[in-house]
Design brief:
Layout (H helix, E strand, L loop, with lengths): L1 H33 L6 H20 L4 E2 L2 E2 L1 H26 L1
Antiparallel strand pairs: 1-2
Amino acid sequence: MILSTFLFAVANILHSVIQIYTWIIIISALFSWVRPDPYNPIVQLLYRLTEPAYALVRKILPKTVFGGLDLTPVILLLSLHFIDLFFVRLLLDFASSL
């Protein structure tokens, strides 16, 4: 009972973190289209939050730029969506079976 509740809580928190980070990636990608002031604190925060994940994707898949369009945010969004659908759901199913 306690383990099941704990796993439900972990799965829900993980789902929330994935959703928040998804929005951060979307906002960062939209900002990259308009070239905002790089000294703006919000732009710097978005850069610090997204660039490590972008660097990891670029390290695994070095060819992510096609025709001047960087597909790293799309790849990252698809990966996060897969993790949310597969692993979080798996964790929830495991918790409900306990």
